[in-house]
Amino acid sequence: MNPNWPQPDFLARAARRPALAWCCGVAGLVVAALALNDWLAARHDLDAQRDRLARASQRMAPAPARPRIAASGPLVPEVDAIRAAQRVVDRIDHPWDRILANVEAETPADLQWLELEHDADEATLRLEGAAGDVRSVLQVVDNLSDRPGWSDVVLGRLRTADARELAASTPPWHFELHASIDARRLALARPGGER
Length: 195
Description:
It is a single chain. By secondary structure, this protein is α+β, with helices and mostly antiparallel strands. The protein has helices at about 20-60, 75-90, 95-105, 135-145, 165, 185-190, and strands spanning about 110-120, 125-130, 150-160, 175-180. Strands 1-2-4-3 form a four-stranded antiparallel sheet, covered by helices on one side.
């Protein structure tokens, strides 16, 4: 049909697709492709983080437990004796030398240790001491926290010495530290209390 002729309204007109629709479609595809690319990159990062976490978990996994004797019937004295011996062996295997070396390495000159209480079964340590100033106490807490195998090192109590203690020429600040000891990590650390 000639475009100059009148167009009857009962004939269907040729549909023309506007250029704006094509541009919007192309822009939508570009945005979808960029979103897919970001999603794939995030997925790759997530997989890499999961792999790192799995490797770290394997390295930090506790050592396999020693076989224990399970009694199926009434306990006999021999089984009790074996269990008691196993507990003694577990305590002997505890890295006492590393714990004491770490405490000694982090002790400033103006600090005196008054008491050490360690429960190997619960892996807790309580240290009581006296110091010339508070800075030395806080320094010991920070330094022990940085050591491998030491965690949750906190200052449990800090007080000034009373008149009787001052007369005995002890330093003016008395304190108590609490810490958790990971015997496995402590045993794997370098000897001599080194960081």
